Amino acid sequence: MHKLIGAPVSLYTGKVRCYLQFKGIRFEEVLSTPQIFKELIIPRTGVRYIPVLVTPDDQVIQDSTEIIDHLEHHFPNRSVYPTGPCQRLVALLLEIYGDEWLVNPAMLYRWKIEENREFAIQEFGRTRLPSASAKEQYAAGLEASGPFAGALPRLGITDHSRAAIEQSYLSLLDELNIHFSDHDYLLGDQPCIGDFGLIGPLYAHLYRDPASGRLMRERAPQVARWVERMISPDASSHDGGFLPDDQVPETLLSIINRMFDEQVPVLLETARQLKEWTEANPDAEDIPRAIGTLRYRLGDMEEERLVFPYNLWMWQRAHDFYGELTGDHRAGITAILNDAQIHALATPLSVRLQRRNNKLKRQTESGQ
Question: Looking at the whole model, is its pTM more than 0.90?
């Protein structure tokens, strides 16, 4: 049986758990206690991140996207990757949008709302000391959650940016509520990789944390119902598969536009700064988690945040898929993306990235 090592409070654990349940893959969930970190996660992965998947043949895989891609290879039935080019591209785009951009409202609502903060601290404590008293768990949770709560400024989450992040998230909820009023999932009657990108922040933080959960259920009840379908999948509801004829619902276009307006400029600036960083560090193979700062924009608000190259590894997936399209397949993308968006997606990436041994590295011309 597979083992999923993570925590209920963890965004990316939620993503992988939903995938395993949807695919009907038998698994045991193991709490990422300090002992598990010391005895398994750190020695077997070399990093301190969850989730981690241990396969029946004792492979240890870290990173939610790599876990899903590994499992897709071994469990290809009901693939979460659509075969139609338009649907496939939208699924890849919305995975990176959920994974890397919706972290901002997820972190803001968790750590800037006192009710959510207290709940999260207790949850961190239950993970660290599952058999301890509530008081002991709270103390342990306060210590364990400190680095997460302290990460907000690095993400550009400040008192200055708070209102703009909240407004963007509320508008997204409204857009998703309209979409899920007509569709069970993003692209039809079964989830795609984009659904799994969105479910991490929208479930583990924004639905599960009490104050933001009430907000979602009251403002966007169809989004809450989608979350509930994702976390408790009923196999009979997936019989219809993806929409026929490579259809992309018009109700997704506003969400794609939001991504290109808010997140994609950050990705392009990250690519520019990574090029400069590699030119200044020509012998460096390993890429740091952050390499500088940039200014990002939400409406009329601008704020500073760190530059995270990992985002580009995710962006490469959509970028490369679009680059491989030809003829009618590429022409069909104009139905969902405008000229400026296509130009952004087609902008060359001067530095190629890969993950090896759970570290982000420059990809050389030989691919090694």
Answer: yes
